[in-house]
Each structure stands twice: as C-alpha cells, then as structure tokens.
Fold this sequence. Notes:
By secondary structure, the protein is an alpha/beta fold. The chain has helices at 13-17, 33-44, 58-64, 101-106, 127-138, 223-237, 248-257, 281-293, and strands at residues 5-9, 48-53, 75-79, 116-120, 146-153, 164-171, 177-188, 194-197, 203-206, 211-219, 262-268. A hairpin with a 5-residue loop joins strand 6 and strand 7. It is globular and about 55 Å long.
Amino acid sequence: xxxxxxxxxxxxxxxxxxxxxxxxxxxxxxxxxxxxxxxxxxxxxxxxxxxxxxxxxxxxxxxxxxxxxxxxxxxxxxxxxxxxxxxxxxxxxxxxxxxxxxxxxxxxxxxxxxxxxxxxxxxxxxxxxxxxxxxxxxxxxxxxxxxxxxxxxxxxxxxxxxxxxxxxxxxxxxxxxxxxxxxxxxxxxxxxxxxxxxxxxxxxxxxxxxxxxxxxxxxxxxxxxxxxxxxxxxxxxxxxxxxxxxxxxxxxxxxxxxxxxxxxxxxxxxxxxxxxxxxxxxxxxxxxxxxxxxxxxxxxxx
Length: 302
C-alpha cells in the first residue's frame, strides 16, 4: 500500500498576499492556514508534500515556509509559469493571468507516481477531511481512472460576511459524481435557508448537506495523461484569450461525462473556512483558537 502524496497549489500566493512576507499568521503561534494543512496531512498518513509555486518567490518560500517542515515530512517544489505550455503554443500577448488550477496540477507530473490529493494553499479543510481522503487514496494504489473528491456539506462552507461561489456536486445513488455546476452568490437568507439564483433568476434552496467542491481532490497518476490531452484541446479552443483558465472541474466533468473515469464523492463532517472577505479574518482566528482549545491541534504546530 503506497502512501499518498499531498499536492498543494500555491503558485498564486505571491500575487494574492502581496508577497510571502505578508502571509497571515492566524494560529496562536503565528501559524498560517497552510501549516494546519501540512500538520493534518502528516497525521492522516500522507508520505510526501509537493508544492506548486512560482520562481519569483522561491527563495522566500524555501526560507519561510519549507524550513518549518524539515524532518517532519519529505517536501518537493515544482513551478507553474505562464510559458509552461505544450510544444507549438505560446502565451498570448498581454496575458498575465495564470492558466488555472489544472495547469498548476500538471506541473507535478514528474514528481508524483502514486495516488495524490490536491488542495488550495489558503483553505482550511479540517482534520477529518484529510483522514477520509488519505484512507481512500491508500486503497487506490493499483487503480487507474478511479478518482475521488471531498464533498463538503454546503452548510459548513458559508461565510458570515457575504455570499460565496461553490461548485455544487450532482451525484448518483452510489455517491459517484455525475457533474459539478458552479453556483455564485450562495447565501444563508434571513429565514436561515441556503439559497442562490439560477440562470433564469429563480431562487433555489439548497439542503444543508448538499455536497459542494472546495477543490480537495484525489487522483491516481493517470490523471496527468488526461490533463495533457485536454489542455491541448483547451488551448486550441481558447487561443488568444487573456483570462480563460483550465480548471480542475473542467477536466473532471469531461472525464465523468465521457465515461473515462469515476469520481467518488467522500462525505466529511468538517467545516471549511478561509478568508474570503477581509471581515472573515477575526472569525477564522476565533475558529482556530477554538479548535486548539478543544485539543484538535497543539498551540504550536512546528
């Protein structure tokens, strides 16, 4: 049984945070959200962590981030850059936006030969989610085209500061994914219901337990080959566009709809949180403090 690898998408950190020096310490000893992710991954049984970053902040990242994990778990760094494209393609003039989450994932193809999980660097996923994902990935050591994702209960992913966008999962009777539909402006209304407006402007109510994607996926290594093929098609279809992105759900949906792969949706009782709005920060600090006080985490992680 192979230990799975954790792939952390962190290439956007420099631009989103205004530089690594401003990475927000939210834990009682200055821990970042990413520190909690690595801590949870280690105790869930992941055997290695691969970070996708940009060359521009490599030195800072190694000094300020990776040094904390030395002796705790093996780590590797790979890079996402705009011009890392298949032969025959070039970056459209004026494009500055990265190519998206699935392009970032593709950068790790040479570093990963075992089942792996994918997460965002700045999302707090919770201990239970890492455990359920690690357990599933350990069972997929010899599998191909057999994927999974952690499906958060939508009621556990909302912001108290405003509406959110979520990938609402459609599943069959066996809890396998049949599609992901991006829904914007999901919010809890004054009556306590979770609602959004559909493409026709009609208000739709979601059950508290409706699974949504928070970009926490589990794949076997053959996923890289599917990504390579679809990325060529994507570039041909969007040649010259300055903002189109190659997202993970785009690839997954196509594989599921074509019958090339299956994706099991794993339920988790964990609550997702992150700093979607500036006003969220104090609430996130309070939630982490409560988890520490409840004994879920030590007051100092590393």
